[in-house]
Design brief:
The protein has one helix at residues 2-100. With 101 residues, the protein is mainly α.
Amino acid sequence: MTIEVALLISGVSLAYGIYTGITNLKRNQTADAKQDASELTTVIVKLENIGNGVTEIKSELINVKNDVKEDRERIIRVEESAKQAHKRLDVMENYKRGLDE
């Protein structure tokens, strides 16, 4: 009878050990899943922030391109105006030379 009691106690201990192991395994899996979800959420938020930053940079780049285009057009107008002024100066120089001679 003592052997049967010892086997019974061993069997109950083994069953309790298996039960405790499975319970801890499930608890750890749940905690890991929560941690993974938290990390994934953090990564997604950071990626969204990076995406927003890229969008802002693209927008600013378009504005810079437009500014350069406007500046180029203004430079062309200024160069044309300078050409006309040089022509007028040449005419005035020729007129003055004619009076001096």
